[in-house]
């Protein structure tokens, strides 16, 4: 099997503009490009949306959301956080009032049980998985809950291969077993939580035998996990997109949080909840306020006191309502009520579910500005393209990882051609639109953020360098807080303990895109170790692991359809179809197929996925599409 390389994207080194919709992009000077961008945004005030970037620095995200709110007068700002972990933020916020993971990476090295739920961390989060392996070597037992027997599951004590979309029944059955076995930490439950009686009533029907019928996991395996998790002195419950990328992703997250509340596995060193973030700054983008319902420092827009603080700092008036999230902005494009978008470092033309629909909506905009380092498919649709610096190597600033650790980023190389710093570009546009912002450097932006965000106040650049990163919250320049969150829940004093953490009363809701005789196979999507997102950045580099995009089938399904490795087939869903070669993977069970989003120019997997969105978080159901496999009349092999 030859190593098939995806498309290599062109690095942007000068601005581009389009003179008319039916004409190609052409090279332009910075003044012309910025003037055009400002005019296009100005004429669409009141119908504007900002897409910020989870790969750029905290400082860029802070200035981007400030541009949306102060310059354009809207809270319509979001990022690819909506595509992946918005349900984690929503679920954790509902339970604890804070949207960050509760533990540090080092704690997984010193825990007793690790539950990897809907997460192939060995491929998708290899750095975190090194910490998991250290924990395993020191005696921790790992359990993998995943429809596929992934590379991560190979290291597990037990693999629970549940049916796609049955995470809530599994969690409820585990909760019921813990209660019936007398393993619930009732001291913690009574002191620190609320809603236990209603939760116990909710999970009561989910016996091990019923859960086995619904999830496909043997009852003894469910019981073993329940007892191991509840009996452990310390336990870490980790999840990724296998939990969140569902039409009920927030409910899935709440179901997992319930297990931590039931057992007291939160708020202590070694016990906690870890939503593993896939990009270097997806946590930081939300922390900086590049989301429609929170201001920097995860402060509530609806809180009048919070708004007054920011209004005073920014010299503006903020509307007391939430903006549109990414999903809602695309729906507003369809209605014609959102007519202009400023897109920084995102590629929604290829990353959104039902990608043909996403492209059609982007084309319908009156004006699109794209600021990026490559000429992506989204940039190819733009009216103005602005060349930026690469956030990880060509700029100064900070990023925030999954464990809430803010770390310095330092410029190592000179950007090519006429590429400019993201912040400088945004400020140049702000100036043309009546706001003369002056920042001497990234540190000046960071210090402004510190002045309005108590959780970041103690993180000076000097301290970040001294400690090689600091986890939020860090409200003081004189001390560091514990590496885990919510220790307050263990306080005996009710005032120090604060708000009780509520159990989430969530019901099982099967996938929207049902399988049937016409579409009998469940397609789930994910990542591979050798590639990154839509392949724009990773596609230009060779990897001995890379084989391009395939539709992966189990041996039984391959035999049933009469197909072999390398044979091209048509993969069809209710939204569209793609041609893809076959790969046979024994990690899959009959009726389950797997594909990635890494090679959309070769095989556009998101033409198949469904835009069935979580009503709370707005995340689409990438993990549960119904497809069929069509054998082509004349087979083509990849050799």
Amount of beta strand:
15-25%
How large, in whole angstroms, is the Cα Rg? 24 Å
Reported for the largest beta sheet, the result is: 7 strands, mixed
Structural class: alpha/beta
Q: Would you report the number of β strands?
A: 27
Instruction: Tell me the strand order in the biggest sheet.
Output: 2-1-15-14-13-3-4
Mean pLDDT: 94
Helicity level: 25-40%
How many helices does DSSP assign? Answer: 22
Q: Uncertain runs with pLDDT below 50, 5 residues or more?
A: none
Note the overall shape.
Answer: globular
Task: Give the termini distance in whole angstroms.
Answer: 5 Å
Protein described:
The chain is an alpha/beta fold and 639 residues long. The protein contains 22 helices and 27 strands. A hairpin with a 6-residue loop joins strand 1 and strand 2. Helix 6 packs across helix 10 and helix 9 packs across helix 10. The N and C termini lie close together (5 Å). The mean pLDDT is 94.
